[in-house]
Amino acid sequence: MSRSPSIPDRPHRDIDSDLPDDERLEALRGHYEDLVDVNDQLSEQLDDAEDRRERLREKVDRVERENETLKSSSLYIATVEDVLPDEQVIVKQHGNNQEVLTDVSSRIVDRIEPGDRVAVNDSFAIQTVLDTETDARAQSMEITEKPAVTYADIGGIDEQVREVREAVEQPLTEPEIFNEVGIDPPSGVLLYGPPGTGKTMLAKAVANETDATFIKMAGSELVRKFIGEGSRLVRDLFEMARERQPAIIFIDEIDAIATRRTESKTSGDAEVQRTMMQLLSEMDGFEARGEIRIIAATNRFDMLDRAILRPGRFDRLIEVPEPDRDGREQILSIHTRGMNIANGVDFGALADDTEGYSGAEIESLATEAGMFAIRNERNEVAHQDFADALEKIEEDDSSDVVSSAGYFYQ
Ligand SMILES: Nc1ncnc2c1ncn2[C@@H]1O[C@H](COP(=O)(O)OP(=O)(O)OP(=O)(O)O)[C@@H](O)[C@H]1O
Q: Does the annotation place 339 within a ligand binding site?
């Protein structure tokens, strides 16, 4: 915080009236110069104070405007269609596609152009221009033409791989089988289980196998601040999939938008609810035998709203558990495939020692073992490196238990 400058002392001189005229004149001149000096200092301080006041006034104005925006109830998202003369614009509200002609303040009019996304209040007055950072569409989807993951990269969950292939891959590669038998394939597949067990890998591997575009969105991305934005993102997601089909839509952390309804009726909850309804209606609307498959994943199966599990929605549930001993051994060999492993590394023993480890944790174990080899200036990774890595991981995690305790997936 800047301190106020100190006020100069008032100049003071005792001038003896008995002094000869020329000396008195000299003394008065000196006093006059002191006064001019102090006067200059005071005017400078006054100028500074005025500047500061101006800046503070601007700040207060800004804060008041922001406060006003926050106080006015929820904001809606709209796109600017046209900017007209006389500070008027046409905006189209997301959600209902209503087009409105609205006045806009001069503060905002210079900052907008057609195509911009804006937040409007109940009376359609533009409150904020959403910058590209707020423009979630660009950043919230991860799109991969053909992910590099294959089924051979996934260990310990063969049964789950088989189920996913049947529920997602076959409808894409052999749709005629479903036509012949006369049944619809599952609409959506829900993978549930603790973190780091290969759910995302499974979805990517199907996309790889079927030459489908992989489009991932995290449920947390769909929980948006502005009304209409979450449902718009859901629409964008399906639109993107239609443009790029065949496509696999993967919604991670689906629990973020599909948690069981609570008693509270805040506008935030209502918005999450709307986003979920949009997802369900998109799912209801798409062709079950078409070229778009949808997979969702969660670590919190217990919290899910059962509405999303009804037939025609996520009607194939696949649990992806932590790997068992053989699974851990398989995952270890997968993640050490590219490593220079010394003779004598006992994967069986390591699998015994890693009870409760997820696939992701086994992957870190292999990397950590490699780090020990480098630290010891070897280019071969020995069993002792794995043992040291295990010890380090156990130490690091001693406060934060490695097992899935605390994750409720059933
Ligand atoms: N079964 C597995 N086989 C081989 N590697 C695995 C397996 N499970 C996890 N991994 C490794 O862990 C990483 C993370 O796995 P993935 O992202 O698929 O987990 P997830 O189940 O989707 O986790 P989350 O629930 O946290 O999103 C993978 O990139 C892979 O290297």
A: no
